[in-house]
């Protein structure tokens, strides 16, 4: 992997991780076109740079994550709700780890779920208008139900962001509130997944040279900066215009993956 390739993948990660368009699908296309999808370091790189994306959420919403003397109770309530929402992913992840890994190797699954999810997104604005919705944080039962929606995102191509935002909409949250809770829930979820995958590589005895360490540092910095911009832009766009454009985009990417795959182009899950 070159520095240019690392920067390109980090930009893709930063843009797609929190938008409901599947970072997995975009990583497949990006890494395959650059011819580095089968490189073991690429797979580790795409996992580790998620830490930069996670940090962008904490920095942008630091007041929610770091309490002051007058908001300790509110912050603890916030953390407990994230734990409640995170529990389903932990349980289902442990129970169905092998099945999830099998699906992660299937490019067709990614293409189809992007396509199907795109069609669903075309109708979200009609199904879930902001009328009568609340910007208040979800209740504990609602947080758990959103966590159940996150489990659906274990199917590659669904998009963790898409699943949890739809989950939030079903719990009477506004588009903005649903998107923000999706960002917050990404912190423990992505950190847990990143830590597990990194530990798996560590057990396999993977060693890094100085160049690879530099690539990981640059990747995290770029992913952090780009993710901050993407989150701010997404919230503003979503509040004004809704989901339809993301539906059309998902359909286009899903079709592109399926067409490339069945045309014989070598696509690979990173």
What do you see in this structure?
The protein has 14 helices and no strands. The mean pLDDT is 89. Helices cover 76% and strands 0% of the residues. It has one domain. Helix 8 runs antiparallel to helix 14. By secondary structure, it is mainly α.
Question: In terms of topology, how is this protein built?
Answer:
Elements: H1 3-16, H2 23-33, H3 40-48, H4 50-60, H5 62-65, H6 72-95, H7 97-104, H8 107-122, H9 124-127, H10 140-152, H11 160-170, H12 175-203, H13 210-241, H14 244-262
Helix pairs in contact: 1-2, 1-13, 4-12, 4-13, 6-10, 6-12, 8-14, 10-11, 11-12
Quick recap:
Helix content is 76%, strand content 0%. The chain contains 14 helices and no strands.
Structural class: mainly alpha
Q: How far apart lie the N and C ends?
A: 13 Å
As a whole number of angstroms, the C-alpha radius of gyration is 18 Å
> SSE order in H/E notation?
HHHHHHHHHHHHHH
**How many E strands?**
0
Keywords, separated by commas or semicolons:
0% strand, 270 residues, mainly alpha
């Amino acid at each position: 992997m070159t520095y240019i390739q690392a920067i390109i993948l980090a930009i893709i990660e930063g843009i797609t991780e929190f938008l409901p368009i599947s970072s997995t699908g975009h990583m497949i296309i990006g890494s395959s076109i650059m011819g580095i999808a089968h490189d073991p370091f690429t797979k580790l790189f795409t996992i580790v740079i998620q830490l930069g994306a996670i940090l962008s959420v904490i920095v942008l919403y630091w007041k929610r994550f770091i309490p002051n003397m007058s908001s300790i109770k509110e912050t603890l309530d916030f953390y407990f709700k994230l734990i409640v929402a995170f529990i389903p992913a932990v349980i289902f992840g442990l129970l169905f780890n092998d099945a999830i890994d099998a699906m992660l190797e299937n490019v067709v699954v990614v293409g189809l779920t992007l396509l199907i999810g795109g069609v669903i997104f075309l109708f979200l604005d009609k199904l879930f208008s902001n009328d009568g919705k609340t910007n208040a944080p979800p209740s504990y039962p609602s947080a758990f139900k959103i966590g159940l929606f996150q489990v659906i995102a274990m199917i590659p191509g669904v998009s963790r962001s898409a699943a949890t935002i739809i989950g939030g909409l079903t719990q009477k949250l506004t588009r903005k509130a649903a998107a923000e809770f999706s960002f917050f829930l990404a912190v423990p979820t992505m950190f847990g997944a990143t830590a597990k995958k990194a530990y798996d590589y560590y057990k396999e005895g993977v060693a890094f040279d100085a160049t690879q360490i530099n690539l990981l540092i640059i990747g995290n910095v770029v992913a952090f900066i780009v993710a901050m911009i993407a989150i701010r832009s997404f919230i503003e766009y979503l509040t004004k215009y809704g989901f339809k454009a993301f539906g059309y985009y998902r359909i286009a990417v899903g079709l592109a993956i399926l067409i490339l795959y069945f045309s014989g182009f070598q696509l690979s899950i990173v």
